[in-house]
Write a structure and sequence with these properties.
It is a single chain. The protein has about 850 residues and is an alpha/beta fold. It is built from 26 helices and 35 strands. It folds into four domains: about 170 residues, no CATH class; about 180 residues, no CATH class; about 210 residues, Tandem AAA-ATPase domain (Rossmann fold, 3-Layer(aba) Sandwich); about 240 residues, Rossmann fold. Strands 25-26-24-27-28-23-29 form a seven-stranded parallel beta sheet, with helices on both faces. It has a six-stranded parallel beta sheet with strand order 30-35-34-31-33-32, sandwiched between helices. β34, α24 and β35 form a beta-alpha-beta unit. The longest helix is centred in the last third of the chain and has 29 residues. It is elongated, with a radius of gyration of 37 Å.
C-alpha cells in the first residue's frame, strides 16, 4: 500500500529510479481498427503500435513502487516523497528523484514518442478496449523500425527497462535466404561472345560478334536482388541504397574489408521493419553493384544491367554461393537462359593464345611485345576494343605494326588500317614501317595534294592522317571502310566534344584500338572519352559517368568505387611498366636541381605574385572559382614565366643585367655536358624560352638543333636524323612538338627547364631518350625554383600520379582535384630556403 505524503518527520529512504517503456502492436484481431482521423498522428493500416511509459522505484528489500509517467513536463503535481509500507507493516518514506524523472520524460519525447489522445484508438466495440492509462506513439507507424533499432538501444544504455508484449511488429528479423532474379527486358536474342579476363584477376569481359555498331541494340536484363524474411520476399535494392546513404563505411574498400563477415548489419525494409543481415553477402553485393545502387536517378525497384555487366554479375553470384556454403544462409539464382549461357561462355573462354612473330618483320620482338601482339589478336578475334598503354619507349608502334602485318598475311586486311596520330609522328610511323614491315604499303595524307590520294586509299595497307586533318577530311574518310582504326597518342581525344574526337567516332572500322602511354593524364573524363570511342556505352553517358564515377572518386575519394572502375576497365587496357618488362634498359636517374631566385629576379617574382594574388582574389569575389578560370591561369602563367626567365614576361622593360637563375645554370651545365661527350635534350613548354637558350648557345659557340611547332613538318625527319647520327650534341625541343612519339635514343641526358602540371607529359618527354634501343644510362635534370610555384607544381604532379595509378595500376586512395586550397598554395609568397 502506498500513500502520497508531502511531509513526514520519519526518516527517509532515497528510491532507486528506473523508467520503463512497454511496446505493443494492436491488430484487427485485437479489436483495433486503427486511429481516429485528425490530429498529429498519421493514418495506420492493419497495425497500430503504442507505448506505455512508467516510473518505477526500488526502496530497499521488498519495496517496489511505480506510477504512470505524466504526459507533459508542465505537470508539477508530483509529490517529492512517497509513503510506503514494508512487509512488516512499518511505514517507509521514499524520496523520489524528480530531476531524473524530468530527464527521462525529455528523453522519451526526444525519441519521438508523443502522448495519444484518450479516444485515439478506434475499437471495433467498446467492450474490447482492454488497455487503460496514457498511451504514446510515433507520428508514423513505419518509424517504429528505426525507433526499435536506433532509439531503444540508446534508451537502454540510459538505464531504461524495455518490455515488449507479444505481437510487437517491429523487432529486427533475420534473413532466411538471398535471391537474385534476372529476367530479359526484351525477347531479343543476345548475340554475344564472352571472354575471360585478359589480364590477371577475376574481372571478366564480354565481346560482341556483331561489332560495335550492334552494341546499342544488345538486349538488357532486369536484375532484382531480394531477401526472404518470415516467408515473404523483400526487395534488397532500396535497403542497400539506404545503407550506403547512412553508413559511409560501405564506400571505402578498406573499411568494408574490416567489417567482420559474421557481424549483423541492420537494414531498413519497407514499412519500417528492420532486417538483420550477415555482413558477408552484403559485402559481396555492394562491392559488385555500388554504382547501380547509388545512382540517384535510378527508378525504384529493379536494376537495369547491360551485357557488359554479365561478368561482374556472374562473379557476384559465384561468391554469394560460396558465402552461402560457408555461413549457412541459402542463396538462390533465378536467371534468364540467355544470361546463364553468357556466364558459361564467360568462364569457358581462355587467355589470349600465344602468337609467333609474322614472317618478314624487320625487328625481333621481346616476349612482352609478343604477348602484346597476342592480346591485340585476341581483341580482334572477339570483336573487342582496347588500349595498348605500355610505358613510353616499350615499342607500342612495333607491336601494332606486327599486328597489322599478321592481319595482312592472314587475308583479313582486305581494306586499309587507318592510323590517326599527331602531326609530329607522321614521319616516325613512315620510317618505322619501312624498317620493320617493308611489305606494308603506307600512304600519308598530308598537304594540299592529299585530296588526290583519297581515291587511292583502298590500294594501301596503312593510311596515316593527323588529328588536325581528320575532321577536315571527314567526308572523304567516312566513305572508306577500314579494317582497323588506330588512335596513336589517344589522349589527344580526351576532350570528347572536340572536333577531332567527334570525327574519329564517325569513321567506319571493324576494330578499334587506342595507343597511349598516358591513358589518364588529368582526370577520369579523359578515360571516358577514349572508351566512348572504343566501346560507346561501356561507361555510360558522360553526365552519368561524371555523377557515378568521376565526382565520387576524384572529389570524395571513394576507394571502393575506384576499385570497381579499375576492375571494369583493366581487362581492356594492356599496360606494362619499364621496370617490369624491360629490365635490360639502362638505368634512369632523375635529379631535381633546386635554384634560388636572387636580387631583382626575386623582387620581380614577389611583385608579380602580389599583383596576381590581388587580381585573382578580386576575380573570385566577382565571378567565383569557375568563372575566374582565365584570370587564374593567366596569373599562374606569369609566375611560371618569371621563374623560367624574366625576359619571358611581356609588357615591361626588363633590365639587361637582371639575374636569370635558369639561364645561368644552363650556361654552366651545357658546355660541361658537351665536353663530356654527352648528347642532351633540352625541353621547355615555352618556345620563347628555347629561343633565349639558342641565343646563349650561339654565344657559347655550341652547335644545336631545334624541334618546335615552328619547325616545318617536312624538315622534322631530317632534324631527328641529324641528332640520331650524333652530328650535333644539343637538341632543343618544345614539349608540344617533340614530347610524344619520337625516338631520340642518341640522347643520354634530358633537361626539363620548367615543370608542367601533368606528370605524364614530362614522362613522355623523358621517354624520348629512355626507351627500347637506349644502351646508355640516362640522366634527367629538372630545374626547379625553390619555394616558388614550381615546387607546388611538383606536389600537384604527385597527386595526379596517384589518381592514374588508382585506376590504371594498383588500387589506392584518391585525392581531391585542384581547388581553392591548391590555388592559395600556388600564389603564396616565396618560401625561405630550407636550412641545411
Amino acid at each position: 500500500m502506498a500513500v502520497p505524503q508531502a511531509q513526514s518527520d520519519q526518516s527517509e529512504v532515497l528510491g532507486r529510479f528506473r523508467p520503463r517503456l512497454t511496446l505493443q502492436t494492436f491488430t484487427r484481431g485485437d479489436g483495433v481498427l486503427g486511429l481516429r482521423p485528425g490530429g498529429l498522428f498519421g493514418p495506420r493500416g492493419g497495425n497500430v503500435t503504442v507505448a506505455q511509459v512508467d516510473w518505477t522505484y526500488q526502496a530497499g528489500a521488498g519495496l517496489h513502487w511505480e506510477t504512470e509517467a505524466p504526459a507533459s513536463l508542465m505537470d508539477q503535481s508530483a509529490a517529492a516523497t512517497q509513503l510506503l509500507f514494508n512487509p512488516q507493516g512499518r511505514q517507509v518514506v521514499m524520496r523520489r528523484n524528480l530531476h531524473a524523472e524530468a530527464d527521462a520524460l525529455e528523453a522519451i519525447q526526444a525519441a519521438g514518442l508523443l502522448p495519444l489522445p484518450a479516444d485515439a484508438l478506434q475499437w471495433r466495440a467498446d467492450d474490447m478496449a482492454t488497455i487503460d492509462g496514457q498511451l504514446w506513439s510515433l507520428l508514423l507507424e513505419n518509424n517504429f523500425g528505426d525507433f526499435w533499432a536506433d532509439r531503444v538501444p540508446a534508451l537502454q544504455q540510459q538505464g531504461w527497462s524495455v518490455v515488449v508484449r507479444p505481437g510487437f511488429a517491429h523487432e529486427s528479423v533475420p534473413v532466411e535466404s538471398w535471391r537474385v532474379i534476372v529476367s530479359p527486358e526484351s525477347g531479343a536474342v543476345l548475340g554475344k561472345e564472352v571472354a575471360s579476363t585478359l589480364q590477371q584477376g577475376r574481372t571478366k569481359i564480354i565481346g560482341d560478334f556483331g561489332g560495335f555498331a550492334d552494341l546499342g541494340r544488345a538486349a538488357w536484363w532486369l536484375l532484382t536482388m531480394g531477401v526472404e524474411i518470415e516467408g515473404q520476399f523483400f526487395d534488397l535494392t532500396p535497403m542497400l541504397a539506404d545503407l550506403l546513404r547512412r553508413d559511409a563505411r560501405w564506400t571505402d574498400i578498406q573499411k568494408i574489408a574490416a567489417i567482420d563477415d559474421i557481424s549483423l548489419i541492420s537494414l531498413r525494409a519497407p514499412g519500417g521493419k528492420r532486417v538483420d543481415a550477415l555482413a558477408a553477402p552484403l559485402k559481396v553485393i555492394v562491392s559488385a553493384m555500388l554504382d547501380l545502387l547509388t545512382d540517384l536517378r535510378r527508378k525504384e525497384g529493379v536494376l537495369r544491367i547491360s551485357p557488359w555487366d554479365a561478368g561482374r554479375l556472374d562473379d557476384m553470384c559465384r561468391r554469394l554461393g560460396e558465402d552461402g556454403a560457408t555461413y549457412g544462409n541459402g542463396f538462390h539464382l533465378q536467371s534468364d537462359a540467355g544470361l546463364r549461357e553468357l556466364a558459361l561462355r564467360l568462364r569457358a573462354a581462355g587467355e589470349p593464345p600465344p602468337v609467333a612473330a609474322p614472317t618478314g618483320l624487320g625487328v625481333t620482338l621481346r616476349p612482352y611485345q609478343l604477348h602484346g601482339v597476342a592480346w591485340l589478336q585476341y581483341l580482334r578475334a572477339h570483336h573487342l576494343a582496347g588500349i595498348l598503354a605500355d610505358d613510353m619507349g616499350l615499342g607500342k608502334t612495333a607491336q601494332m605494326l606486327a599486328h597489322i602485318l599478321i592481319e595482312k598475311q592472314s587475308g583479313r586486311l582486305d581494306c586499309p588500317a587507318l592510323v590517326v596520330l599527331p602531326t609530329s609522328l607522321v614521319f616516325n610511323w613512315q620510317a618505322e614501317a619501312r624498317r620493320m614491315t617493308p611489305d606494308l604499303r603506307v600512304l600519308a595524307l598530308q598537304g594540299p595534294q592529299r585530296e588526290d590520294d583519297f581515291a587511292r586509299m583502298a590500294e594501301f595497307d596503312i593510311v596515316l592522317t593527323t588529328y588536325p586533318l581528320v575532321w577536315r577530311d571527314l567526308d572523304a574518310l567516312a566513305r572508306q571502310q577500314f579494317h582497323l582504326l588506330i588512335l596513336d597518342e589517344a589522349q589527344t581525344v580526351k576532350n570528347a566534344a572536340a572536333r577531332s574526337a567527334s570525327a574519329v567516332r564517325r569513321l567506319r572500322a571493324r576494330h578499334r584500338v587506342c595507343m597511349t602511354g598516358t591513358p589518364l593524364e588529368n582526370h577520369l573524363g579523359e578515360l571516358w572519352a577514349q572508351f566512348n570511342f572504343l566501346m560507346p556505352g561501356f561507361l555510360g553517358e558522360a553526365s552519368t559517368f561524371a555523377r557515378l564515377w568521376r565526382k565520387p572518386i576524384e572529389e570524395n575519394g571513394e576507394t571502393l568505387r575506384a576499385q570497381l572502375l579499375a576492375q571494369r576497365v583493366r581487362p581492356f587496357i594492356l599496360r606494362r611498366r619499364k621496370e617490369n618488362v624491360a629490365a635490360e634498359l639502362p638505368p634512369k636517374t632523375v635529379a631535381i636541381k633546386l635554384l634560388q631566385l636572387q636580387g631583382r629576379q626575386r623582387d620581380l617574382y614577389e611583385s608579380v605574385r602580389a599583383a596576381a594574388d590581388k587580381q585573382v582574389r578580386r576575380a573570385l569575389e566577382r565571378r567565383g572559382f569557375t568563372g575566374s578560370h582565365v584570370t587564374i591561369m593567366d596569373a599562374l602563367l606569369k609566375l611560371r614565366q618569371v621563374c623560367c626567365d624574366p625576359f619571358l614576361l611581356k609588357g615591361g622593360k626588363t633590365p639587361k643585367t637582371i639575374e636569370r637563375a635558369k639561364i645561368e645554370m644552363l650556361r654552366d651545365m651545357l658546355p660541361s655536358l658537351a665536353a663530356e661527350g654527352r648528347r642532351v635534350l633540352v625541353f621547355s613548354q615555352f618556345t620563347e624560352m628555347l629561343e633565349l637558350i639558342e641565343t646563349e648557345l650561339d654565344v657559347l659557340e655550341l652547335p644545336w638543333l631545334s624541334l618546335t611547332g615552328k619547325t616545318p613538318t617536312a624538315a622534322r625527319g631530317e632534324v631527328v636524323a641529324q641528332f640520331q647520327r650524333k652530328d650535333v650534341p644539343i637538341m632543343l625541343v618544345s614539349l608540344k612538338a617533340g614530347g610524344i612519339g619520337l625516338n631520340l635514343t642518341a640522347a643520354d641526358t634530358v633537361i626539363l627547364v620548367d615543370p608542367w602540371w601533368n606528370p605524364a607529359v614530362e614522362e613522355q618527354a623523358i621517354a624520348r631518350a629512355h626507351r627500347i634501343g637506349q644502351d646508355q644510362a640516362v640522366l634527367v635534370y629538372k630545374l626547379i625554383i625553390e619555394g616558388s610555384i614550381e615546387e607546388r607544381i611538383l606536389e600537384l604532379q604527385e597527386r595526379k600520379s596517384v589518381l592514374a595509378e588508382g585506376v590504371l595500376g594498383t588500387d589506392g586512395a584518391v585525392t581531391p582535384k585542384f581547388g581553392q586550397a591548391e590555388l592559395d598554395a600556388l600564389i603564396a609568397p616565396l618560401q625561405l630556403a630550407r636550412p641545411g
